[in-house]
Design a protein that fits this description.
The chain is mainly alpha-helical. The protein contains 6 helices and no strands. Helix 3 runs antiparallel to helix 5 and helix 3 runs parallel beside helix 6. The protein is globular, with a radius of gyration of 19 Å.
């Protein structure tokens, strides 16, 4: 997000909430923290499957080296590794995302253990169901077009 071009009220509403304030101060009620952890755990499961679909759709060449004008054309910008093909740069990005989500999932387990939380058996929220459907739809498109 380019914060220089984001209206202040949108930036504030996305980054300043009573939930984040209480979580940052360690004053979030255990029940509310447990509920958030359960919902975010549902999200991580959808996200991991989505990343798997992306990985499955990448036609990895035999070599990771740049081999075409297309690689050079899409080689500029964020995350560019000189000489690395577009497919392998996508592979690297998704691999990093998986490592980060794994770290987040371990953080959840650490929080549950540290605060001796009892996570409720809770269905995912309507919003998370929609995220799951979005990820699934995109994944289906990747399979069809890949």
């Amino acid at each position: 997000m380019d914060t220089a071009q984001t209206p202040p009220d949108l930036l504030s509403s996305a980054t300043q909430s009573s939930f984040l304030h209480d979580a940052g101060r360690g004053t979030l009620p255990p029940q509310k923290l447990s509920q958030w952890l359960v919902q975010d755990t549902h999200y991580t499961r959808h996200y991991v499957r989505f990343l798997g679909a992306i990985l499955n759709s990448i036609p990895l060449p035999f070599s990771s080296r740049v081999s075409s004008d297309r690689d050079r054309e899409f080689g500029e910008g964020c995350g560019n590794v000189p000489g690395r093909s577009l497919e392998f740069r996508i592979f690297d990005l998704v691999t990093d995302a998986l490592v980060n989500i794994q770290r987040e999932m371990q953080f959840f387990e650490d929080v549950v253990r540290k605060y001796e939380l009892d996570l409720p058996e809770e269905e995912e929220s309507e919003a998370l169901r929609a995220y799951g459907e979005l990820f699934a739809d995109v994944s289906d498109g990747l399979r069809r077009d890949g």
